[in-house]
Amino acid sequence: MQLIDFQIFLALHPNITGVFIGAIGACVGSFLNVCIHRLPKGESIISPPSHCACGQKIPVWFNIPLLGWLLLRGRAKCCGATISVQYPLVELITALLFVTAFLVLSPVKAAIGCVFLSLLIILAGCDMKDMLVPDAPNFLLVGLGLFFSIVAPLLHRETGSSLEIISAMDSLIGIAVGTALVWWIRTIASFIMGQEAMGEADIILCAGVGAFCGWQGALFCLFGGSVIGVIIKFRSVLALFGPKKEPESVPFVPSMAIAAAVWFFRGPELVSAWHLFAGKFIRFLACLPTQG
Tens digit of pLDDT for each residue in 26-36? Predict the structure, then answer.
């Protein structure tokens, strides 16, 4: 099926396409669960096959994304151990993101987006579960961002001649801005606080987002992620002003991943909205009466 045929089919049958893409997303989410569970431990994501914590191999029919967890009612059939709700949540989130990508983006960008979003889910899941971000998917994010920028220049909405070169430059600038910005913030904040403020994984992640989304995406990933992180961990932020306690480690990668996904879906619209808001605010200030 050619690309134009898929676009026509998507337009004529959005419901069927959505169900099909959602099923693929749920299956991918099941694999992402394996990555989240095994990568921080340095285990292979290929073998052995999926197994329970007690070592018993999980039958295929209980490995069906979403349905398997519901059929088992969150408990292992072999030993009765509780199965974390993380597994169906990751599968559901992946399915919804895949469907959203193909509904709101062009087919090429949606396909690339599925790769981008999958890597973000792995990194966020590892950070939330083990407070450890593996290097492999992080560096893969950077490399694939640069690769896709060359083979699919429309990823950066470039048009005209020499698309591959211009798009690759957008990606490289995004990598440079993401790396330098987070490195300087990390260095200054660590000096002021007397302890490491951000991990090296945050630097690589921001560079990877820059590779896929350009320098503006890298900026939004960092600062938008900071706002999202404060909102999610508002109680922890308030605790900083209370009695002194042991410092609490807060995973920052999930917040950065959310911000990166938001930018990938609606980056240009966010820029336009910001320019509109800034213009209205400046005009409002200019209309204020002056004393004198």
Answer: 999 999 999 99
Q: What is the pTM of this model?
A: 0.84
Does 198 or 23 have the greater pLDDT score? 23
Indicate whether 134 pLDDT > 70: yes
- Return the ∠ at Cα 149 (arms to 144 and 155), rounded to 5°: 110
- pLDDT of the residue at 96: 96
What's the rounded Cα separation, in Å, for the pair 127 and 260? 16
Q: How open is the CA angle 64-35-37, to the nearest 5 degrees?
A: 90
53 is written with which tokens? 């914590």
Instruction: To the nearest 10°, report the CA torsion of 45, 49, 55, 60.
Output: 130
For the chain, what are the domain ranges?
A: 1-104, 134-292
CA distance 221 to 286: 32
Cα 16–chain centre separation: 26
Q: What is the pLDDT of residues 251-291, one digit of tens each?
A: 789 999 999 999 999 877 777 776 677 677 677 777 766 55
What values do phi and psi take at 254, rounded to 5? -60, -40
Q: How many other C-beta atoms can be found within 10 angstroms of the C-beta atom of residue 19?
A: 13
